[in-house]
C-alpha cells in the first residue's frame, strides 16, 4: 500500500501562499482547475511538479508538431514512488485527473499528452550511475524505462553485449517503444522489441506496482506490451541480450519490378540464411532529390539512379545486413555473394558497405543531424504507418504507390515497405496485427511544413479510404483515430479484451488520454 503525508495546516498555508506568489509571477499558459486543490501544495510533489510555461509548453508538443495539447502541470519524478504517489492521488480523488507518461515525446499525434492533466516527464528519472544493470550470465539487461535505446546500446556494448531487436532510430525511450511494438529490419528474425522483453515493473492506473512476466501477472505483462500506455506506466524492463557483433555488411539492391522485389523479400524472411536485417523502400520520381539520394550511394552512381527512377517513376530498394567479426569476415563475403546471385534485382544496381555495428544501428542519427542543421527536423510530421497483409500488397502497390502517391505528387520523406513473420509476435500482446502469417510494414515518414501538412493528412485519409473500400484489412501501426468508433474498428474482435483490461488496470481511465481511446 502506498501512503503519502499531508502537511500540517500552517505548513500547508505557507506553501499555498508561496505557490500563489510564484503563480502570480510565472507566466502560465494553462489552468490547473482540473487538478485537486492540494496537489501543488503537497509535500511530495512541491519540488517536482511544475506549472512553469516552458515545461508545460514543451510537454504540449511532440515530434509530430501537429497537435498542441496543454497539461496543467508536469511532474519531474526522481523515483518510482513519485509516479506511484501521483497516480494514487488521482485514483483516490473524487474527480480523478488524467496523466500520461512522456518518454522522449517522439509520438506524432499527441499520444503522450494529457489535456488539463499531468504529464510525467520520464526522462527526469534517468540516473547515469544506476538504471541499467547487465547480467552477463543471464544475458539480459534490467533497464529503467526512461532510457533511450542508444543509451542502452552504449552501456551493453561496454560488456560486449547487445539487445537484438531495434527500431530504425535509437533516440526513443524503452517505455515508449514497448508501448507500441518497436519494429525494424530485425523484426522478421527476432520479433519486435516487445517480443524480446523478459520481465517488467508496471504501475497500474490504481497506483499499484507489479512485477510481471510471462509467468507472473502474465495478463498485465501482455497487456502493457503494445498497450499504448493504457494499463500502466512501465518503469523497468528486462531486455534479452546476445553477444555483440563488431561489423555489419550492408547491401542494397534496386528493383523496377514490384513482384520480383516482394518475392525476394518474402523468400529471404522465410529462409535460414543468417541475415540479421531486411527492409525495403520505395523511390519516387518526385520530391526533393535528397529523398533517396542518401549518403549511402556513391556520388558517382547518382546520375544512373536518377535516370532509372525517371524512366520507371517508381522503383524499389531491398536492403539487407549480415553482422560479422574478424573471424567471419571471409565467409560473410562469400555468403553475401551467393545471396546476391540468387536475387532478381536490376543487374548492375547493387551497392555494398562495410560499417561498424554501432554505425549501422545508429544510421538515422546522421540524417537527423543533417535535417536539424537545415531547420527541417522540428517540422510537422503527418506520418502514416500500416501493416498490410501479404495477400494485399500488390493491390496496395498498384492503388497507393502507383496510384494515389504518384497522382498527388506531394510525398516526401522515406517510404518504407518490408515484410515480417507473424509467428515472431504473441497474440496476447496488445498490438493489433493482420491475420496472415506474413504482413508488410509500410511507413510514410513524411516531413511537411507548417503551411502544407494538411495536404499530407488528406493524402493519408485517401490511402486509408482506398484500403477500406477495397476491404484490404490493413491495420494502423502507431495508430491514430479521432473517435472511439475508429478504435473499436482498429481492435476488431480484440476490443472486448482491451476494454476488460482497461477496467481491470485503469478503471478510472486516468492513463495516456492522448491516445484518445477513452475520451
Ligand atoms: P512517447 O512519444 O513519449 O510516448 C508514446 C506513448 O507511450 C504515449 O502514449 C505515452 O504515454 C506512452 N508511454 C511513454 N513511456 C511510457 C512508459 N514508460 N510506460 C507506459 N507508457 C509509456 N517506431 C518503430 O517501431 N520503429 C521505428 O523504426 C521507429 N522509428 C522512428 C523514428 C523517428 C524519427 C520517430 C520520431 C519515431 C519512430 N518510431 C519508430 C515511433 C516510436 O517508436 C514511437 O513514436 C514511440 O512511442 C516514441 O517513443 P517515445 O519514447 O518518444 O514515447
Automatic annotation (TrEMBL):
The terms under GO molecular function for this entry are: cytokinin dehydrogenase activity; FAD binding
Q: Which InterPro entries match?
A: Cytok_DH_C_sf, Cytokinin_DH_FAD/cytokin-bd, FAD-bd_PCMH, FAD-bd_PCMH-like_sf, FAD-bd_PCMH_sub1, FAD-bd_PCMH_sub2, FAD-linked_Oxase-like_C, FAD-linked_Oxidoreductases_BP
Identify the stretch annotated as signal peptide in this record.
none
Which segments constitute the FAD-binding PCMH-type domain? 67-244
- Which residue ranges run through the membrane? 12-30
* Keywords (A to Z) from UniProt: FAD, Flavoprotein, Glycoprotein, Membrane, Oxidoreductase, Signal, Transmembrane, Transmembrane helix
GO BP terms in the entry: cytokinin metabolic process
List the cofactors: FAD
Its domain of life reads: Eukaryota
Name the reaction it catalyses. Answer: N(6)-dimethylallyladenine + A + H2O = 3-methyl-2-butenal + adenine + AH2
> Which E.C. number(s) belong to this protein?
1.5.99.12
Broad enzyme group:
oxidoreductase
Which PANTHER family does this one have? Answer: CYTOKININ DEHYDROGENASE (PTHR13878:SF164), GULONOLACTONE OXIDASE (PTHR13878)
Which family does the similarity line name?
Answer: Belongs to the oxygen-dependent FAD-linked oxidoreductase family.
Name of the molecule in the record: cytokinin dehydrogenase
